[in-house]
């Protein structure tokens, strides 16, 4: 066997194997996986799989859970009978972790019975009796009571209540000799990720989008990877780097965390602001759609419904739906670069909705500065977490770009808060959300 370790001998050796064995090897995860996709040597409490978009993180988590449930000796000495699956929402658990292309049900059968997903019970069951229960990070209290021997947490950097959900999960990891977590996520410099990476009981595997290029669509590699490679956003989303706040950014994550609240008070005014793209298409900017409200002298960011590369009908529908859901007072629309068309589209879709046109006479940075000062004074609060929006805020500098791209969510936020906090104040009417 030692002689076979030489690279030059391996093709000759494989050529001597029967076809059925070669097919089995092709489907074997230990044979297919990259080193970063296999569990590191124990002991550890948390295995943090940090990677770019499409780098194979979901497949890594699914294979780990499946191996623990089946008692695969290559992964564990003893099977784990109860496992927690925690995603951003219940839909994310179902559509990504369980039923997605790289989820538990999408793994190769390898001649074994596949696990069974019971949607009504939110559980995956294996033929040996092992079960995995699905939980949403939006409901940390649901993790009270159940107990597990292992947990898979997917995209924890995007969770709306990351610390509360992760901490509550730890109280339930009390079965077996070595309860442990696998956290698969594209990194963001949020407190939970910083805490996990600094914990000596955490081991880290890293992967870039490019490492999994053989399994990704060529158009994705050309259009997305090609566009963002080398930028700050690309280093985070493609290379899986934890990017610290920019020294010259108008916002920082500490201030956003300090002002974060779980719910808004009764609001006197609510607006939905739209920063429309100049065109639609594969390479067009996103349409920023952000809602905010005001109570007294404080503003509350309520929703980010921004859409990427959407048609005018699609983003107009999204903006109007948000307007009606929140019972807003007005739609604020920037009319530079196609915005007049945007206002016309909104008017055609719902003529009863009042549209307030705003025109940019200064650059993005100058428009954003007064709004960032409101944050610095503690007058703006995010109701929950808005990862994509907050990434833009904390990566926005004097060049007027965020991550090398147009900050469309930020623009919509600036228009909403400028209208609510820095412009003439309309007569309020109290709404309870």
UniProtKB/TrEMBL annotation:
Residues 273-419 form the Terminase large subunit gp17-like C-terminal domain. Gene3D superfamilies: P-loop containing nucleotide triphosphate hydrolases (3.40.50.300). The keyword Transcription does not apply. The keyword Transmembrane helix does not apply. It holds the Pfam family Terminase_6N. It comes from Methylobacterium fujisawaense. This is Phage terminase large subunit-like protein. Coiled coil: none annotated. It comes from the Bacteria. InterPro entries: P-loop_NTPase, Terminase_6C. The lineage of its organism: Bacteria, Pseudomonadati, Pseudomonadota, Alphaproteobacteria, Hyphomicrobiales. Keywords: Viral release from host cell.
């Amino acid at each position: 066997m030692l002689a076979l370790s030489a690279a030059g001998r391996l093709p000759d050796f494989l050529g001597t194997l029967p076809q059925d064995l070669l097919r089995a090897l092709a489907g074997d995860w230990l044979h297919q996986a990259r080193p970063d996709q296999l569990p590191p040597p124990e002991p550890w409490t948390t295995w943090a799989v940090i990677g770019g978009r499409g780098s194979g993180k979901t497949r890594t988590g699914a294979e780990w859970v499946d191996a623990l449930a089946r008692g695969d000796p290559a992964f564990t000495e003893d099977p784990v009978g109860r496992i927690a699956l925690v995603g951003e929402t219940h839909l994310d658990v179902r559509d990504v972790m369980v039923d997605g292309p790289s989820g538990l049900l999408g793994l190769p059968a390898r001649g074994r019975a596949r696990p069974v997903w019971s949607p009504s019970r939110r559980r995956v069951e294996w033929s040996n009796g092992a079960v995995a229960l699905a939980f949403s990070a939006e409901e940390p209290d649901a993790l009270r009571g159940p107990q597990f021997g292992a947990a898979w947490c997917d995209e924890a950097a995007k969770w709306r209540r990351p610390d509360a959900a992760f901490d509550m999960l730890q109280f339930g990891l009390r079965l077996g000799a070595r309860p442990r977590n696998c956290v698969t996520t594209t990194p963001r410099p949020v407190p939970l990720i910083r805490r996990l990476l600094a914990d000596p009981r955490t081991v880290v595997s890293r992967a870039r989008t490019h490492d999994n290029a053989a399994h990704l669509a060529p158009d994705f590699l050309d259009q997305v990877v090609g566009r963002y490679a080398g930028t700050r956003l690309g280093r985070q989303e493609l290379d899986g780097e934890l990017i610290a706040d920019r020294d010259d950014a108008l916002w920082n994550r500490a201030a956003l965390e300090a002002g974060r609240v779980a719910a808004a008070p009764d609001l006197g005014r609510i607006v939905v602001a739209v920063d429309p793209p100049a065109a639609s298409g594969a390479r067009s900017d996103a349409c920023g759609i952000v809602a905010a409200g005001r109570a007294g002298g404080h503003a509350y960011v309520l929703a980010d419904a921004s859409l990427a590369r959407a048609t005018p009908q699609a983003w107009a529908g999204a903006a109007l739906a948000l307007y009606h859901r929140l019972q807003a007072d007005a739609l604020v629309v920037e009319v530079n670069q196609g915005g007049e068309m945007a206002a016309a589209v909104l008017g055609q879709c719902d003529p009863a909705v009042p549209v307030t046109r705003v025109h940019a006479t200064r650059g993005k940075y100058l428009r954003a500065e007064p709004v960032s000062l409101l944050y610095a004074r503690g007058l703006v609060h995010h109701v929950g977490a808005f990862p994509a929006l907050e990434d833009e805020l904390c990566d926005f500098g004097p060049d007027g770009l965020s991550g090398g791209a147009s900050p469309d969510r930020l623009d919509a936020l600036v228009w909403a808060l400028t209208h609510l906090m820095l412009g003439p104040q309309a007569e309020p009417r109290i709404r309870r959300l």
